[in-house]
Specification:
Helix 9 packs parallel to helix 10. The radius of gyration is 18 Å and the shape is globular. The chain is α/β, with parallel strands linked by helices and about 270 residues long. Strand 6, helix 9 and strand 7 form a beta-alpha-beta unit.
């Protein structure tokens, strides 16, 4: 299946719009994992196994692995998800942005080396910085549009010919760049009015929405602004609030409870 088909199936099978972000910080791991060479894999795999029936996707953030020379554990983690929980798409959160042969290599990294089902990409350098990822027809390409950080307004709110820059990105993505149907957009939960505006521009295109949980985004406002007519269309990401819900040997069970509560809170407004 393609990424978009996997995502649609996971929305239905798990009755969930929740994406669990995998941002492993060993300083926050329970004591029994600290000091182990495979601690990052073991921590993330336990979270995955405890929450896989509650999510529509998983989103490992590559920096948390690369900073600790744990790319091999990232490879193993994605392979584990595909083997143990087939049908749950994996989004590699890498936010790559470059052109030509360099972008081609980043695409090989995401889809060849790590075997991710989708990757986040920075579209600031334009269409030819996106095309190398679209050369993989079964993969998803998730472009930054209206990000959840306050500083995003420095550029994303600039006027470009009578519309804001993030609106231009949304329009280009939906009307010009998405000829293969592979593109999704990142729109932060901290700006529900902009979620609604992006939804208006792009129709039923999937949106990856970070910013609930630790970043304080409002679940009700997010869902009402971004849901499609059939009550889907969103991958609402929560990372720290789920990963670190517990700090002892029962951390995975605590993560499951936090994910269940978040999934159900989202569903109340669908």
């Amino acid at each position: 299946m393609t990424f978009t088909q996997m995502l649609a199936a996971a929305w239905q099978k798990n009755n969930s719009l929740l994406c669990v972000g995998l941002d492993p910080d060993p300083a926050k791991f329970p004591a029994h994992l600290k000091g182990r060479d495979d601690a990052i894999f073991e921590f993330c795999a336990a979270i995955v196994d405890a929450t896989a029936d509650l999510v529509c996707s998983f989103k490992p953030q590559i920096a948390y692995f690369a900073a600790r020379r744990a790319e091999d554990q990232l490879e193993a983690l994605i392979a584990h998800i595909h083997e143990k929980h087939p049908g749950i798409p994996v989004i590699l959160d890498a936010k790559r942005g470059d052109i030509g042969s360099t972008a081609e290599q980043y695409a090989v990294e995401a889809f060849g080396r790590f075997q991710a089902d989708a990757v986040t990409v920075n579209p600031y350098m334009g269409r030819d910085s996106v095309d190398p990822y679209l050369a993989y027809p079964d993969k998803g390409v998730i472009l930054l549009c209206r990000t959840s950080n306050a500083g995003g307004s420095d550029l994303q709110f600039l006027d470009v010919g009578g519309e804001k820059l993030y609106e231009r990105v949304a329009g280009l993505s939906a009307r010009t760049w998405n000829s293969t149907g592979q593109i999704s957009l990142v729109v932060g939960a901290t700006f529900p009015a902009e979620i609604a505006r992006v939804r208006e521009i792009v129709g039923d295109m999937p949106l990856l929405v970070p910013g609930i949980g630790a970043q304080g985004g409002d679940i009700e406002a997010t869902v009402k602004a971004g849901r499609t007519a059939d009550g889907t269309g969103l991958m609402i990401n929560s990372s720290r609030a789920i990963l670190y819900a517990g700090r002892d040997e029962n951390f995975a069970a605590a993560a499951r409870q936090a994910a269940l509560e978040t999934r159900d809170a989202i569903n109340r407004y669908r």
